[in-house]
């Protein structure tokens, strides 16, 4: 343990301390490149102090430590008044929450950070602050500003550590399900087409549509990926992206692929944006953007062009637009768009750090256009927004990619917040599951989130990064020993953080994830809940779905305030199907 008041062990040998200083200075000397635009997040005052400290005799170890440690504390934080005033203001805000917002939620926006466990939220917060040249820890994400927070138990009916399909069924359809299945109850077994029929469960997107609201799906993955697909599809296997990925048995039993279901199950989804072009076109059709890439070609065995089918379902007097690049998106006048289908990549969209600013919109840009289109409906809207590649970054062990995805989703949350009001819009931010991602090592205040712990291992005598994975592809042994990270560029966009167990793909984590909520009825997300509780709250708040008995008094009084007790009593157990 470090000695008191020190974020790291200043009594450690001079060599260890010097090692840390050298690493930070080395990190500073990297020059920005397209693949590595943020060479250092080291906080400027600390950097100065580090330089000063290095001038001092290495024999004065304690003095160096004190010098370094003091320099890490922002001046205002040394005054107790700063902390007392801040806490008192927070208390005032908390007391104001006693006046519950029991309005009807005209709009519901759900932000789903795929794989965004609590450790990812904290690390993304620090990153966001450091991108703005702050130490980072004190930064507030947009989701941090939401007044209500709950924990969500993420397990699938057949899995302690869940996947994104079973969880999507829980937080969109209100029913827990088996891993790998979407939009079906736990009576459906993965890959078993013949266990699908009769076990379909519908989602809050459908309930909103049935209530006359506009609905939208925005994701950075394929639009037929696990998370969005539970909003509209019923599939025994999340991997049935098109008929090309389905076993002959499932096809012969009449099961339909997920892309097909996107276009046919709910024909009037107003906004669909993400990746996944190739699943919409006949087999071997050349892609519009990557004409030389065979993997980008159409996949459909049935020869259908689902874009044409999508267009054919739209009324002639309505304005429907299919687009495939950012330029087209930004050129749209959302007031003149009734239906939008934007497919910006053949598969998943690019990572935010790798994004092409001509062809690929950011998540916040997609959200901005989506809300402008959906907002036109006087009955309101439901919008599902997925930051889908946080998960992919983690699976690849590329924490920097994952965290920049999370920061971009937070920007999208901010964007939505500027376009909506808590008076009539319920916004929920959560994750489907966590990852075995962690950061630690007694790092000092303001340490680059991608930086090193301030000491070397007391066992193998090598430095280590603060960020580590429990398992994954970053496991590296060189000459029979753990790799020395000081020999590699551990701040590179694609650096794979070290893991304890070698796996080609890092795994999900099984602990609870956070649920952040603001707007009407947000207070109903308040404790430790099963994940499938979430859409029941969203539907209740919006007076959609089955549980609407409280809504009559709400609409007749003009202000839907039946009081908290009747509201909670009304939340009786619901059936599987709405
Ligand atoms: Zn995953």
TrEMBL record:
Please spell out the taxonomic lineage of the organism that makes this protein: Eukaryota, Metazoa, Chordata, Craniata, Vertebrata
Q: Which reaction does it catalyse?
A: ADP + H2O = AMP + phosphate + H(+); diphosphate + H2O = 2 phosphate + H(+); a phosphate monoester + H2O = an alcohol + phosphate; phosphoethanolamine + H2O = ethanolamine + phosphate
What is the required cofactor set for this protein?
A: Ca(2+); Mg(2+); Zn(2+)
In the bilayer, the protein is annotated as: Lipid-anchor; GPI-anchor
Query: InterPro entries under this entry?
Result: Alkaline_phosphatase, Alkaline_phosphatase_AS, Alkaline_phosphatase_core_sf
PROSITE patterns in alphabetical order: ALKALINE_PHOSPHATASE (PS00123)
- State the compartments where it is located: Cell membrane; Extracellular vesicle membrane; Mitochondrion intermembrane space; Mitochondrion membrane
Provide the alphabetized UniProt keywords.
Biomineralization, Calcium, Cell membrane, Disulfide bond, Glycoprotein, GPI-anchor, Hydrolase, Lipoprotein, Magnesium, Membrane, Metal-binding, Phosphoprotein, Signal, Zinc
Q: Tell me where it mainly resides.
A: membrane
The similarity annotation says: Belongs to the alkaline phosphatase family.
- The name this protein goes by in its record: Alkaline phosphatase
- EC number per UniProt: 3.1.3.1
Root EC class: hydrolase
User: Which organism does this sequence originate in?
Assistant: Vicugna pacos (Alpaca)
Q: Which Pfam families match?
A: Alk_phosphatase
Q: How does it assemble?
A: Homodimer.
